[in-house]
Specification:
By secondary structure, this protein is an alpha+beta fold. The chain has 3 domains: 2-130, PAS domain (Beta-Lactamase), CATH 3.30.450; 136-209, Orthogonal Bundle (Helix Hairpins), CATH 1.10.287; 219-367, Heat Shock Protein 90 (2-Layer Sandwich). The chain is 45% helix and 21% strand. It has 12 helices and 12 strands. The strands form 3 sheets. Strands 2-1-5-4-3 form a 5-stranded antiparallel beta sheet. A 5-stranded mixed beta sheet has the order 7-9-10-12-11. Helix 7 (132-160) runs antiparallel to helix 9 (179-209), helix 8 packs antiparallel against helix 9 (179-209) and helix 10 runs parallel beside helix 11 (259-275). The radius of gyration is 31 Å and the shape is elongated. The model is unreliable at 1-9 and 370-375 (pLDDT under 50).
């Protein structure tokens, strides 16, 4: 409608333009009003009158403090600041009560902007959009998210308790000189490792989400981190007959960080590469440095990442459906954990992929600032 008015303006008489604009404001689904320099209503459209729970004519000549006292207590200071600075305020969140629903706290996004008519006192125009429903949904989602986190933390704790006895029972099988016992022990060990990794991911996810993940900083060799991570996933890579290429400088590349957590982050990247690369694929790990950062790059020849999945790849619990090996499925936490650990080291974790079937490249960058110089 605004575009129509814009193009029609040259052929409309002045009075017709004013009438069209008046009708537009009168029927707009957002509240609008104009105040004088004393914050008294000069104009109110029906939508705002309904929000305030008062008739249009009841507003005129009365101040904001009289019509919506609760809201004025919350935004009066902003109104005075706008008048003094002559600068608008855009989409300010205001919460409070009006006569429309006494006792009910509602939410609005309000935009205030000053108007300075030539030779007259300044005015103020206000546009109001109610967002009570949206804010209620946000609160509900936040509560659900908190409940989910509490449940996952409790679940991880309860799952961890029986892992010790099961592991001990598996060790006892090794003392039985029967071929079948050795086979069963091997199966138990592999499944215990998988279950332990899942439980650890759940517990770390809970710690990160609540800001309780402990990071123990010290001067470490990033090359040693790479080798430790490779050792963690060596058996898995070997079982899928991948070709692993590791390129690490012979000299130490020292950085300030948590050896255990950085090893965990890189192990997650390698596990992800292994999972999404078909058997007998190729995985590469390259450690290098530039003027600003230390870089660990993990490349694979796997199934690749679709363009629509790239923006979500580091979201918590997000899982790419295509190319997943369901027999070694996870919780969708590995990449999120890796990125969170990188960020706690003031670093970044990014991903690129040329598309499905063309592999993926993950780059972990840790800043040089505050790190020890390379030898």
């Amino acid at each position: 409608m605004l575009k129509t008015l814009y193009f029609a303006a040259p052929v409309l008489a002045g009075s017709m333009r004013l009438k069209a604009l008046h009708e537009l404001v009168e029927h707009a689904p957002i509240g609008m009003c104009v105040l004088n320099h004393n914050f008294e209503y000069l104009y109110v459209n029906p939508c705002l009158a309904a929000m305030n729970g008062r008739a249009v004519e009841d507003h005129l000549g009365h101040s904001v403090a009289e019509i919506v006292p609760d809201l004025y207590r919350r935004c009066g200071e902003v109104l005075h600041r706008i008048v003094a600075s002559r600068e608008p305020a855009v989409e300010v969140l205001i919460t409070g009560e009006t006569a429309a629903q006494p006792g009910v706290v509602r939410s609005w996004l309000e935009t205030w902007f000053p108007i300075e008519p030539p030779g007259a006192e300044p005015l103020m125009a206000i546009a109001v959009r109610e967002v009570t429903h949206e804010k209620g949904l946000e609160r509900e989602l936040k509560i659900r998210d908190q409940n989910k986190d509490r449940f996952l933390a409790m679940l991880a704790h309860e799952l961890r308790n029986p892992l010790g006895p099961i592991s001990n029972a598996a060790e006892l099988l090794g003392a039985i000189d029967v071929p079948l016992a050795a086979k069963v022990q091997g199966i138990l060990h592999r499944q215990l490792q998988q279950l332990t990794r899942l439980v650890d991911d759940l517990m770390d996810a809970s710690r990160i989400h609540t800001g309780k993940l402990e990071i123990r900083m010290s001067e470490i060799d990033l090359g040693a981190v790479v080798h430790a991570a490779v050792a963690n996933v060596a058996q898995r890579i070997e079982s899928k007959r991948h070709r692993l290429i590791v390129q690490v400088p012979s000299r130490p590349l020292m950085v300030r960080g948590d050896f255990v957590r950085l090893t965990q982050a890189l192990s997650n990247l390698l596990n992800n590469a292994c999972k999404f690369t078909p058997d007998m694929g190729e995985i590469g790990v390259v450690l290098d440095e530039d003027n600003d950062a230390m870089n660990v790059v993990v490349r694979d020849s796997g199934v690749g990442i679709d363009d629509e999945d790239l923006p979500r790849i580091f979201q918590r619990f997000f899982q790419v459906e295509r190319g997943r090996d369901m027999s070694e499925d996870g919780l969708g936490l590995g990449l999120w954990l890796a990125k969170s650990i990188a960020e706690q080291h003031r670093g970044t974790l990014s991903v690129t992929s040329e598309g499905l079937g063309k592999g993926a490249t993950f780059t972990l960058r840790l800043p040089r600032e505050g790190s020890a110089p390379s030898a």
